[in-house]
Amino acid sequence: MPQTPYEVVRRAVEFESPDRLPLRFEALGLSDIYQVNWNQISTGDHTLRQTLDEWGCMWQRSEVANMGQVKGHPLADWHHLDSFIWPDPDNPNFYTGMEEKLDLAGDRYIACGIFMLLFERMHALRGFENTLIDLALEREKIEFLADRIVEFNLGIIDQVGRRFKGRIHGFTFSDDWGTELNLFIRPQFWDEFFKPRYKKMFDAMHDQGWHVWMHSCGKVNDILESLIDIGLNVINLQQPTALGIEEIGQRFAGRICFESLCDIQHTLPFKSKREIEAEAEQLLLHWGTERGGFVLSDYGDNAAIGVDPQKKQWMLDAFLRYDRWNNPIAQKPEERR
Known about the structure:
This protein starts with a helix and ends in a 16-residue tail after the last helix. The strands form two sheets. A nine-stranded mixed sheet has the order 2-1-12-11-10-9-8-7-3. 39% of the residues lie in helices and 14% in strands. Helix 3 crosses helix 4, helix 4 packs across helix 5 and helix 10 packs parallel to helix 11. The relative contact order is 0.13. It has a domain of 98 residues. By secondary structure, the chain is α/β, with parallel strands linked by helices.
C-alpha cells in the first residue's frame, strides 16, 4: 500500500525509506506538505509598494510585485528601544483561523513556521550594517535584542504547540546566512553568539514533537555542522551550485535532510533542458541516500528569478525520472549510496 503524503515526508526526513520522492511543488499543484502559519504579516501584500509587518519594519517594493526589502528599520537608532512596542506572542489574533486551515490538510505533512527567525529579524529591526557593527562593538545591546526575539519566538512555539497539540509535524523558518562566497561572519563567532540561541529554539520545537526546517541562502557550508549538532532536521538550500553539490553530499548526506531544487540563480534562469536534467540527477545522487534525505521544493516566484514556467516542468519531470526511491534503476548500482 502506498505511503501517505505525511508518511513519505516523515520517512524522508528521518531516513526511514520513503517509497517516492517527497514534493513541495505548489506551482504545479503538487505538495505533500501543507503549510499552516499563524497570522504573521510577514512581508505583507506584494502588490503594494510599501507595507509594515508586526514588528514595525517597513517593506518597500519596485513596480514589479515582489517580496521587497526592509527599508524602514524601527530600531536603527538605539534611542528608540525604550519606546519600542514588542509584538505579543500571546495575542489570540495571531492564531485565529488556524483550526479551520488545519482541517483542510487531509493526510499531508503539516508545517507551521516563523518568517525571519533570528538574524534576519535582528537586521530587519536594526539594519544590516548596524547589526554587524553591533555584534563587534555593542555586544550588550545586540544580545538584548537577540534574546528578546528568541523570547518572542519561544512564545509562538509554545502557543502553537498548546493550541494545536499533535497536529503540527514540522516547524519552518528562514534566516539567510551567506553570500555566494562565504558566511557574513566568522564561523567561530557564529558558534559563540548564535548557536546557543538557535539551540534553545530548536529544543523547544523538538519538545513539541516537530521536525526543524531551516531555509538559508548563500554558501552556508561552514555552519551546517553546527546546525546538525544542535538538531536541525531539514535544510532548505536553493543555490546548490554555490555550495558545491558533491562537496555538500560528501560531508553531510545521510546526516541531514535536504530540501532543494536546481539552482535558482545559475541553473533555472539560464541553462538548457539537458543541463537542468543533469543537475537534478546529481542532486538526488549526491544529496539523497537509499533511505531518504531529500525533498524537492519549488521556489514559488518565477518572475522574481526570471524563470520560464516551462523550465519548472522540465525540472519536476527530471526529478521524478531520477527518483531513486520510486525507480530502482534510476542510478546504476555502483553509484548508489
